[in-house]
Amino acid sequence: MAVSVPGYSPSFKRPPEKLRLRRKRTRSSGAAASQAPEPPEPAARRAALAAGLPLRPFPSAAVRGGGGRPAAPRNPFARLDNRPRAAAEGPDVRQEAPGPPPDHKRENDSLLGELLPEKTTITEMSKTQHLSSFESDTPSSESTELPVDWSIKTRLLFTSSQPFTWADHVKAQEEAQGLIQHCRAVEVTLPQNIQDPKLCTELRCAFQQSLIYWLHPALPWLPLFPRIGADRKMTGKSSPWSNDESLQHILMSDWSVSITSLYNLLKSKLCPYFYVCTYQFTVLFRAAGLSGSDVITALLSPTTRGLREAMKNEGIEFSLPLIEENALKKKVYGTSLGHGEEQAVSDEDEEESFSWLEEMGVQDKIKKPDIHSIKLRKERHEVQMDHRPESVVLVKGINTFTLLNFLINCKSVVATSGVQAGLPPTLLSPVAFRGATMQMLKARSVNVKTQALSGYKDQFSLEITGPIMPHAVHSVTMLLKSSQSGSFSAGLYPHEPTTVFNICSPLSKVLDKEVVHKDLANCGLHSETLKQLSQIPLLGKSSLRNMEMSDYSYKWRS
């Protein structure tokens, strides 16, 4: 709503004429002021000066008509509260009010005093607003534990006021010890605060242990993660299987053995989870007990109408959790939905409207769309949902085994053209499986100088790159909690197509955490990491982007 100010009309159409009038009035008023004698000091001001009271200075000599430099002409398009007073303009212009009357000002000041705490400065207000904006994006403003995040990270950047030199130049004995600890699933518990991290062998071995992951297939000259949108990185790389069908058959046969081995480990609760990364979509398989589910679950994202139809034809029962959740919200609360979500539920609403007309007995008077029109509209809605987070598919229980067979036999999981033609999907797992190759995330520490109030100070950082799975994020943060005295911050960079894996799937019952931990005790994860992964997801379609630990407590932002 526009503010009504006396003497101001926002509907003028000729700004150049307004500017000329301004300059003319300024010159005329300046000439008149230069001829006028300087006004005498008011009696009240003379009395205050005699009493020694501090006074506000008069306007400059140029404004009062002194011999100083004349004031520059004002811009008529500036803010209203910066416009010159109307006394300086000609008699044909109405007097302008520079601000609200004193009563209004006192009323506003008293209201502001009630809203703000006592002795609050502008700087404190800006700090408070910054903190509130940080905390508003977080499920919890402060906690001793992070929320579970099922997205795959491509990069972690930790910063701290204490050095990370302990992570560099690992000795051969320490690297070997870290590999053995990983293969034997040794659970390492460090003290809360390590005095000299560089001399702590247990810390360095545990850090090597946390960087290990398992991959199939393993082709050192090809970047096998991420697979979605990786054509540019693979361009020019050697791919002898692209035009050799017999070699493609061998690769897929070996891949089928590996993914079957992973599923059997998952079913036996000896593997907590694993990822299947194709050139079009990613699948997350989770063991029973994780994320609050009592059965094996699988999430696929993003999906297309063609993929969903193929799954239906194979007899795979699945759900669209985001679509169903938003449809329920629309019915119960009447909330507004996004474009893709609203399109997906419109057909159901249309069927309900026609059933209501039949109950009223007026269905013959309403022209109902024919079957072909309804089918075309439904197909259009389904296509519009493709490649969006709302297209995420949830498969549960025995249907995950059917999904496994579908992935093994489905030709669409392998590209038929381009640089990824004939290359099987990438399998990522925190534990070993048949045909897997042990890999290590890349880590390096950097020491830089940053500017501070007193000069320059040291800022230490630790960067980790690669396909960083959820267990690795938790393991590394546990180590840094001890090595950095409970004080560090981090930036997390997720693989965007996997952020939707943080949605909360419908739960049939509440699981006993002690039973879950006992059943998954041999899955190869640290007990604290297993405890975190068994939490119910809270992040929805987003993932952790920033986190900060201070005095052993977390703050995070998604």
Short synopsis of the structure:
By secondary structure, this protein is an alpha+beta fold.
Describe this entry's structure for a reader.
The protein is an alpha+beta fold. Among the domains are: 143-211 and 442-503 and 540-557, no CATH class; 216-320 and 392-438, no CATH class; 329-389, no CATH class. Helix content is 37%, strand content 15%. The chain is built from 17 helices and 13 strands. The protein has helices at residues 15-35, 43-51, 61-64, 102-115, 122-136, 172-183, 201-210, 231-234, 245-267, 305-313, 321-332, 339-360, 371-385, 399-409, 470-483, 513-519, 527-533, and strands at residues 153-160, 212-216, 273-277, 282-286, 297-301, 393-396, 426-429, 437-440, 442-452, 455-468, 488-494, 546-550, 553-557. The strands form 2 sheets. It has a 7-stranded antiparallel beta sheet with strand order 6-5-4-3-7-2-8. A 6-stranded antiparallel beta sheet has the order 9-10-1-11-12-13, covered by helices on one side. A hairpin with a 2-residue loop joins strand 12 (546-550) and strand 13. Helix 6 crosses helix 7, helix 11 crosses helix 12 (339-360) and helix 12 packs antiparallel against helix 13 (371-385). The longest helix has 23 residues, at 245-267. It is globular, with a radius of gyration of 34 Å.
